[in-house]
Design goal:
Layout: E1 3-8, E2 11-17, E3 22-26, E4 33-34, E5 45-50, E6 53-58, E7 65-67, E8 70-72, E9 74-76, E10 82-85, E11 88-93, E12 105-108, H1 113-116, H2 120-124, E13 131-132, E14 148-150, E15 172-176, E16 185-187, E17 192-197, E18 201-208, E19 211-218, E20 224-225, E21 228-229, E22 235-236, E23 241-245, E24 248-254
Parallel strand pairs: 3-4, 12-17
Antiparallel strand pairs: 1-2, 1-11, 3-5, 5-6, 6-9, 7-8, 7-10, 10-11, 12-14, 13-14, 15-16, 15-24, 17-18, 18-19, 19-22, 20-21, 20-23, 23-24
């Protein structure tokens, strides 16, 4: 099991096992990892762990989050990475063999209409080295929703991605039911697909051998599935579930 080692000024304070899929970090007491220091925001960052892999996301903190001395917004954590929050450090320890390469973490964001109109070339030049895939770069036969974006920020180049799930797992997709992208569809071919509006509400859909699971990542409001608000735990999706994230409704379905 992966864990974090919390330290300050070289003094180890405690070990923190990553026992939950979503673990929040911040100054306020409701966080899974509370660090009571004014340099740390109330809700500073979050770590989402899927199987043996974890990724870190800064939640728009005031002073930012560093990994190995470099500022990040999103980062695929690797063994021995050091997260810096003010004077505190969290060393990520995961000696398990990682089956998923960073390229498998596809970020598919619901973006503002003005962002969706950007060309793929403009989006490829965004900060943090993100590779944003606009509508022009997508399959001409399968419409895609919500300005899809494949993000590998703060991750060194790796080998070609292996298949993200066993062949027997049926391919699933989501179709947008409301908003400007209504009718568009996205196949869930990556290990982790992220949906939402950064800074408002973000969730991930993980493709596992057992099926597809949705987990809350960011925002005060949790995802809604079939009219029921989820909690912080992963929720397995079923065929034709209706998901609502950041005010956008979409249908999850298994493709034949």
């Amino acid at each position: 099991m992966a864990k974090l080692i919390l330290s300050m000024d070289g003094l180890v304070l405690k070990d923190i096992p990553l026992t939950k899929e979503r673990m929040s970090i911040g100054r306020k007491s409701h966080n899974d990892i509370q660090i009571d220091n004014l340099a740390i925001s109330g809700e500073h960052a979050v770590i989402v762990t899927i199987l043996n892999d974890s990724f870190l996301e800064d939640l728009g903190s005031t002073n930012g989050t560093l990994v190995n001395g470099a500022p990040i917004k999103r980062h695929f954590l690797q063994n021995s990475d050091t997260i810096e929050l003010g004077k505190y450090k969290l060393k990520y320890v995961n000696e398990a063999v990682q089956q998923t390469t960073p390229a498998d973490f596809e970020k598919t964001m619901v973006l503002r209409p003005d962002v969706m109109r950007q060309t793929s070339e403009q989006m490829e030049n965004k900060a943090f080295g993100d590779t944003q895939v606009g509508a022009a770069a997508l399959s001409s036969t399968t419409p895609q929703p919500l300005a899809a974006a494949a993000t590998t920020a703060s991750v060194p180049p790796g080998p070609a991605a292996a298949p993200s799930a066993p062949a027997e797992l049926p391919l699933a997709a989501i179709q947008v039911l409301s908003g400007s992208g209504s009718g568009k569809m996205l196949e869930l071919v990556k290990t982790v697909t992220t949906l939402g509006k950064p800074g408002v509400q973000v969730a991930v859909i993980a493709r596992r051998p057992q099926g597809y699971f949705i987990t809350h990542v960011e925002g005060a409001n949790f995802p809604v599935v079939n009219g029921k608000t989820l909690d912080a735990q992963a929720h397995q999706l079923s065929d034709h579930d209706v998901i609502e994230i950041a005010g956008v409704k979409m249908e999850f379905f298994i493709k034949n």
